[in-house]
Amino acid sequence: MPSETKHLRCAIYTRKSTEHGLEQEFNSLDARLEACEAYTS
Q1: What gap in Å lies between CA 38 and CA 3, rounded to an integer?
Q2: CB–CB of 8/20 below 8 Å?
Q3: 40 Cβ neighbours under 8 A, 6+ residues apart
Q4: Of 30, 37, 38, 41, whose CB neighbour count within 10 A is largest?
């Protein structure tokens, strides 16, 4: 009997309270987004 895969949709929202560090090529927002994406994959 084949198993059924259930797909769920989600949204990832990240924010930063200050603009400090946003000019960096890779900043804390990018790190948070990557962590969330890895957790949900």
Answers
A1: 24
A2: no
A3: 10, 12
A4: 30
Q: Which amino acid is at 5?
A: T
d(CA 38, CA 24): 22
- Comparing 34 with 8, the larger pLDDT belongs to 34
Helices (H), the chain: 28-40
Q: Report the predicted TM-score, pTM, of the whole model to 2 decimal places.
A: 0.58
Residue 24 Cα distances to 4, 10, 14, 19, 29, angstroms? 43, 27, 16, 11, 10
